[in-house]
From TrEMBL:
Keywords: Cell membrane, Membrane, Transmembrane, Transmembrane helix. This is Sodium:proton antiporter. The chain crosses the membrane at residues 12-41, 62-81, 108-128, 186-209, 252-271, 283-303, 315-336, 356-377, 389-414, 446-464. Residues 76-169, 185-462 form the Na+/H+ antiporter NhaC-like C-terminal domain. The keyword Magnesium does not apply. It is a multi-pass membrane protein. One of its GO terms (cellular component) is plasma membrane. It is found in: Cell membrane. Pfam families: Na_H_antiporter. Its main location: membrane. It comes from the Bacteria.
């Protein structure tokens, strides 16, 4: 096309509108409409029919139907576990076992909870925050330190151990960008996800050595040990019958989540005829999620005083809560298909190949993604906007897509982590019981350190590609 620069407009509109309004859905719809205007100009009828057709074709594509199903299935699974009662018993078991006698062990417990509960970022925050808060108050550790530790492990761990909705969401975006062996490429990208790695390691360093910088120093000095009795928790130990109930509910959570973890590689081997990297990632995740959901439903019915109708209501509620993410995914895939039809990746590659040094590409993608994530307060929305730009760019330049995927994802996590309007930042403040603005102020210096290290790491990676 003579005016090839027009192919950039849909993505640029989506980014600018998302930053200006923080409404990712409207931004993606606007990008889809503009892409069809560019494709079918000057025919209004073709523009309208193209917009409807592109969205509908994406919606009913057989592989995408599996994606919608397992995205909603993830929501249903955690709806059953959380609202059915077994997850509450799981949390109670963790609380019963968290008796530690020193601030360092309390901080390490919080970090460990953030790492091992990788199922969903907000769930991780709520478990680690609410479980640790009484202990922090008793040992004289600031709640701002607690908020930082839970916030610095939730999203990074969910992307480094992507056996959750985060992994399914990003795998779906990657699969729809023409990447060969998308699951294997996604796994490769984890090694380049420098911000997530640095954030988790920095949080571990802070937990071990109580490293306080910036405003955190003031809040740590101001925190005073509470006078709670050392026997406080012992007095709250459940009865023998209660302990049996706790074990039953905890077993349901463990078995369902272990089945989710184990079923993915097994199904990859089955669908790949013994070769895991050649397996069908979408179908494997689909089977794993619904197997875990079936176990959660049966286990809840066997261990909790509830009915089948109520359990299914919990499942539907969980699926409903995750529906907006499924819609974002649908619109993002649609926009990605349209930008591919416009040749956006090829044009961007030709321009950058002439005007930008190759070692700068990864840092630029990271920083653009970080700016988007900080402005809209959503890592998911940032992934949806940036991955359809980063992946075609890598393919067009003949470069491996894994580092480009990691740069876009890392930027989204960094921006979301530092943003005061991010849902995870807000929930971390709530779960830890501290003022939201205090959490933002105390966390930002640590996030900037990890962000600077990440920019350097991507520059080095770009130089050796």
């Amino acid at each position: 096309m003579d005016n090839a620069w027009l192919s950039l407009l849909p993505s640029i509109l989506a980014i600018i509108f998302a930053i200006a309004t923080r409404r990712v859905l409207l931004a993606l719809v606007g990008g889809i409409v503009l892409a069809n205007i560019v494709l079918f100009w000057p025919s209004p009828l073709d523009m309208f029919s193209g917009t409807i057709a592109s969205a509908w074709d994406t919606l009913i594509k057989p592989n995408n139907l599996l994606i919608w199903a397992f995205t909603l299935g993830i929501g249903a699974l955690f709806g059953v576990l959380e609202r059915g009662g077994t997850f509450n018993q799981f949390v109670a078991t963790l609380e019963r076992k968290q008796l530690v006698e020193s601030p360092r062990k309390a901080r390490l417990l919080t970090w460990l909870l953030g790492v091992i509960v990788f199922i969903e970022s907000n769930v991780t925050i709520m478990i680690a925050g609410t479980t640790s808060r009484p202990l922090y108050d008793r040992l004289g550790i600031s709640r701002e330190k607690l908020a930082y530790l839970v916030d610095s492990t939730c999203a990074p761990i969910c992307i480094l151990i992507p056996l959750n909705a985060w992994g399914a969401f990003n795998l779906s975006l990657i699969s729809n960008q023409g990447v060969e062996q998308p699951l294997w490429v996604f796994i490769q990208s984890i090694a380049f996800n420098f911000y997530a790695i640095f954030a988790v390691l920095l949080a571990l360093f802070v937990a071990l050595f109580n490293w306080n910088i910036g405003p955190m120093k003031h809040f740590e000095q101001a925190a005073q040990p509470q006078t709670a009795s050392k026997n406080q928790f012992a007095a709250e130990q459940p009865t023998r019958e209660g302990k049996s109930s706790l074990r039953s509910g905890t077993s349901v959570v463990f078995i369902s989540l272990l089945s989710l973890i184990a079923a993915v590689p097994i199904m990859l081997m089955v669908t790949g005829n013994g070769v895991m990297v050649e397996g069908d990632g979408t179908f494997s995740v689909f089977v794993a999620i619904f197997l875990a959901l079936a176990i959660a439903i049966i286990g809840t019915l066997l261990t909790q005083p509830t009915s089948m109708a109520r359990v299914f209501a919990h499942a539907l509620k969980g699926a409903w809560n995750i529906l907006p993410l499924a819609i974002i995914l649908w619109l993002s895939i649609t926009l990605g298909n349209l930008t591919d039809a416009l040749g956006t990746g090829e044009f961007l590659a030709s321009v950058l190949d002439q005007s930008v040094a190759s070692w700068l590409l990864l840092p630029l993608i990271f920083l653009l993604s970080a700016l988007t994530g900080f402005s809209i307060g959503s890592s998911w929305g940032t992934f949806a906007i940036m991955l359809p730009l980063a992946i075609p760019l890598a393919i067009s330049l003949g470069l491996p897509p894994a580092p480009f995927i990691a740069a876009a994802i890392s930027g989204g996590i960094f921006g979301d982590h530092a943003s005061p309007i991010s849902d995870t930042t807000i929930i971390a403040s709530m779960a830890s019981g501290c003022e939201h603005i205090d959490h933002v102020r105390t966390q930002l210096p640590y996030a900037l350190i990890a962000g600077i290290l990440t920019t350097i790491a991507f520059a080095f990676t770009g130089a050796v590609l």
